[in-house]
Amino acid sequence: MGDAARVVGLVDGPLGAYVHVPFCSRICPFCPYNKVVPRDGQPERYFDALLAEARGYVDAGVAGGTGFTSLYVGGGTPTLFPDLLGPVLDALPVTGERAIEVLPSHATPERLDELRRLGFTAVSVGVQSFSDEVLRHLRRPHDARQARAALENAVGRFDLVDADLILDVEYDDAHAGSFLRDLVGCFELGVHQVSTYPLMRFGYTAFGPAAHDRRREHEVLAEATRLAREHGYERRSVWTFNRPEAPSYTSITRRRFLGLGAGASSFLGRDFLVNHFGVETYIAALDAGRLPVAQRLHLGRLGGPLYDAFWQAYSGRLCPPARGSSEPVGLLLRSAAALLAAGGLLTPAGPGGCRALTPRGFDRYHDLERWVTYHLIEPLWSQMLAEHAHEGGRAGWAAPESARRRRLWTVVEALTRRPL
Hints:
- The protein is an alpha/beta fold.
- The chain is built from 13 helices and 15 strands.
- The chain has a domain at about 15-240: Alpha-Beta Horseshoe (pyruvate-formate lyase- activating enzyme).
- Strand 1, helix 2 (about 40-60) and strand 2 form a beta-alpha-beta unit.
- Helix 2 runs parallel beside helix 3 (about 80-90) and helix 12 (about 360-390) crosses helix 13.
């Protein structure tokens, strides 16, 4: 697979690995990620292609001599086919954390033990809520009893257990109270981390677009921060709360990562790559001996570090290059950090020039993340989701023509180059 060598040539540092499993037995209408209900025989062909992609990159030396720094398996529902996933895991040399997303109804002691045998050290359980009313609103394929039991089963079995909760103040104000009760429930169960994601209302999903009450979200997250401190947890990032001694669990703040699978993306330092979303299109590319890369955005010497800094700030800290660096991007980042500190969004510089987000900074980043999501991520994903319709795929939940497409996207689209 000769184009794998070209990808390796774009890498400028150690990589984590992300593996995407796009299959779900039932579609949650709020979820914007690439997912389908599989056809008969499709999972087997998909995992064969995934294995070919993994081996192609590894054979080309993408993981270097030390292996991937971490592994994160997401979806879809990656715990649907653990037996098919096993060979792919065996093909990826990983030196650090191995993490996987788990559907609560799959988090039985037996299946969790199977994940341990596969080498996973961390799990993220998609609890979303302990309220049956909220779970019905989200149309989740599990109930509150299963959500609680999943965390009880996971704690003590893994080095790190993350619980995902959805914050949706647009549902009604009662849900904000439910969310805070859910948060305390996770703390009391002793999970290592709680991820508190605001519900993003993508235009192409069944939930459709909606306005957001930013002020109310800020208030709820401030109260969540107070409750976290009260229960011995700390706000580790914009949307996560951790036990102080626990590591962080996230796929989005890896400094560099290689994405494998239909709909996976890669950030290699100065280049952002996106794989085909269509499952059959993805499989066909690998059957033909080609990488399934569909889009490439070359960020360059300036855009790459800015992208890196954006996700670094999500973790609550920004560490611009030291003053001895005369690189233009270093000067730009130090100047920007100083301006943000003057505006009350960052603390004064500490050791190494690092600064932390203030409470006001957390609120502004929360708003900025939503802006980036709707202006850049939603139009890109909707464009790629159209592949399912072109190949007759089972992704009828997505209506790409209903996605937001604002002016900034036309500029980004013009800069996006077809692959490699």
